[in-house]
Amino acid sequence: MSQAFTPLLDATRVEQPIRDGLPMSAFGGFVVESIAPGVAQVRLGYRDWMLRPGGTLAGPVLMMAADAAMYAVILAHVGEQLLAVTSNLNIHFLSKPKPADVLAEGRLLRLGKRLAVCEVLLRSAGDDDSLIAHVTGSYALPAKPPSS
Amino acid sequence: MSQAFTPLLDATRVEQPIRDGLPMSAFGGFVVESIAPGVAQVRLGYRDWMLRPGGTLAGPVLMMAADAAMYAVILAHVGEQLLAVTSNLNIHFLSKPKPADVLAEGRLLRLGKRLAVCEVLLRSAGDDDSLIAHVTGSYALPAKPPSS
Amino acid sequence: MSQAFTPLLDATRVEQPIRDGLPMSAFGGFVVESIAPGVAQVRLGYRDWMLRPGGTLAGPVLMMAADAAMYAVILAHVGEQLLAVTSNLNIHFLSKPKPADVLAEGRLLRLGKRLAVCEVLLRSAGDDDSLIAHVTGSYALPAKPPSS
Amino acid sequence: MSQAFTPLLDATRVEQPIRDGLPMSAFGGFVVESIAPGVAQVRLGYRDWMLRPGGTLAGPVLMMAADAAMYAVILAHVGEQLLAVTSNLNIHFLSKPKPADVLAEGRLLRLGKRLAVCEVLLRSAGDDDSLIAHVTGSYALPAKPPSS
User: Fold this and answer.
1) pTM strictly above 0.80
2) Chain B partners of D88 at a C-beta cutoff of 8 Å?
3) Residue D132 CA to chain centroid, in angstroms?
4) Contact by Cβ (8 Å): D43, D102
5) Helix or strand or coil: residue D115?
6) Cβ pair B85:A93 closer than 8 A
7) What is the tens place of the pLDDT at every residue in B47-87?
8) ipTM, 2 dp
9) Disulfide check for A106: which of A47, A73, B134, B135 has CB 3.0–4.6 Å away?
């Protein structure tokens, strides 16, 4: 990556606004595990309602985890006063996700003034070298107020 | 569209397997409203947990509705014995969705032997001429058993 | 669509900047056939170099036509002084395109102040009811100068 | 990645079918620089016709390079007898590409029996640590003949 990314917020500061903005998190455990330059690691705790027939996690559960990871990495780097809005999300499902926590690693590909582009690598807890899905997405960033 | 699409299942037959496969539907009302050639209309009932700060529906709620509409239109046209699996989903968020039922219209763009491609138009109930999101996606279709 | 779209430029005014910005058009005929509210129709003339083995058009030829149609519909509605830049393009290939002109119909899904979202329906000339590809994409729009 | 990828063809064997299948390569230099497990590096040589006003490369040039890199990495791993067809391509443009050769690194995310999923990292020659675009895409793989 060409850009040097510098986080402004740590995992604890990032987690609460995401919990507030991801109401479904009320139905599952959600943790921002770490923030590093250009990267956020989040975990979505497994719950039985996430299963679909065949014993794999439902697709929307992975999309929810990916959306949270994108939001986490952006929030960490632009600061919590800004209201970023998902513009686009593209997911490829790669292998059947077993009933386990979902680990989502959000990475900034570009952080512009008005648009941020991310990728998210999704894995199952306990199977760290296998991707279950790959996501790219963009977020529209609000204009900063003139005085800030 | 060039292909002539002929539904094999009606809305009632399509709805139950989707409820089973979309466990989050336990937390919200979900109805397959109609099936027509190449088209499925589904409704995801509004619940308070779907809201995010600012009073709009969370993005994953729209993805869940879109995924269900894609699944409905495919299931209706390939028959319930087949286990279709989402391969890819791409969503563009177009306007802020107000707190209301989500109406998702799934349309087949192509139904091949191994891959189906769909688009989904998402609207808010009571505001029928406004798109809140647009989705395209593809489903991998299983090989038919030799005897069928 | 909820938004009422009003074109500012006609097909003739839109065509020249696209020819300038799509240098490959030097290798193929390119025409903006019509502009209507929210819609632009463009045609990319068939040339032998567009073929790939098997006698179908190469994928990048369809992407080039789609990109031109997106640019045409946006330019027509924001005016030529603005320098829109493609942010994202997503294409699903639906059927094998025969050796013929490509007709691309660009439609605005949303025209915001900073981002425009479009879809493009791609067909082969002479086979008007069959889609060969479906595209969605977004364009970043520059900030207007303060005086305008 | 969980899958262990083993190339079947080297760069020389991969290059010719891509040149044949990418007719626009006649207008620009195209080289498969290397093949490694799960990865293909390709280079699209800069030509003046690739420029758009403002002095940057036209978007379709990057899509062409990405499509070639996806095709290269798949061909290298499934063997040249198979006719893979692009099913879907999604590109995010990240920074303005200067007038220089385009380096595209195609990586397999999943190689299934019927579908391959890749990502492509695009850079400008001489600026190796900066991404100009990011692509994901899927290819439909033909059924193998029963005897093979």
Assistant:
1) yes
2) 88, 138
3) 14
4) yes
5) strand
6) yes
7) 888 888 778 898 889 999 999 999 999 999 998 766 778 89
8) 0.91
9) A73
Which residues of chain C fall short of a pLDDT of 50? 1, 146-148
Contact list in C for residue A88 (CB cut-off 8 A) is 88, 138
Per CB-CB distance under 8 Å, the chain C contacts of D50 are 23
The letter for the amino acid at D83 is: L
Nearest CA of chain C to the CA of D7: how many Å?
23
D 91-120 near A (Cβ less than 8 A): 92, 94-95, 109-110, 117, 119
Per residue, the 3-state secondary structure of chain B, as one string, reads CCCCCCCCCCHHHHHHHHHHHCHHHHHCCEEEEEEECCEEEEEECCCHHHEECCCEECHHHHHHHHHHHHHHHHHHHHCCCCCCEEEEEEEEECCCCCCCCEEEEEEEEEECCCEEEEEEEEEECCEEEEEEEEEEEEEECCCCCCCC
Q: Would you say residue A2 has pLDDT above 60?
A: no
Q: What is the mean pLDDT of chain A?
A: 88
C55, two tokens: 């006698």
Question: For A74-133, what is each residue's pLDDT tens digit?
Answer: 999 998 766 778 899 999 999 999 999 999 999 999 999 889 999 999 999 998 778 999
Q: What is chain B's length?
A: 148
Let me know: does B56 contact A21? Beta carbons within 8 Å: no
Per residue in D104-137, pLDDT (tens digit) is 999 999 999 889 999 999 999 998 778 999 999 9
pLDDT of residue A3: 75
Which of D93, D136, D138, D139 best tests the A interface by mutation, with the highest count of A CBs <10 A? D136
- CB of D145 within 8 Å of any CB in chain C? no
**E strands, D37-99, in order:** 39-44, 51-52, 56-57, 85-93
Gap between the terminal Cα atoms of chain D? 27
CB contact D48 to A (< 8 Å): no
| Residue of chain C with shortest Cα separation from B92 | C117
Please tell me the distance in Å from A70's CA to the nearest CA on chain D: 15
Residue ranges of alpha helices (H) inside chain A are 11-21, 59-78
Burial class (CB in 10 A: 0-12, 13-18, 19+), C48: exposed
Q: How far apart are CA B91 and CA B119, in angstroms?
A: 10
Q: What angle do CA B62, B68, B71 make, to 5 degrees?
A: 140
Compute the mean pLDDT over every residue in chain D, rounded to the nearest whole number.
88
Spell out which residues of chain B touch residue A83, defining contact as CB-CB under 8 Å.
Answer: 54
Contacts of A92 in chain B (CB under 8 A): 87-88
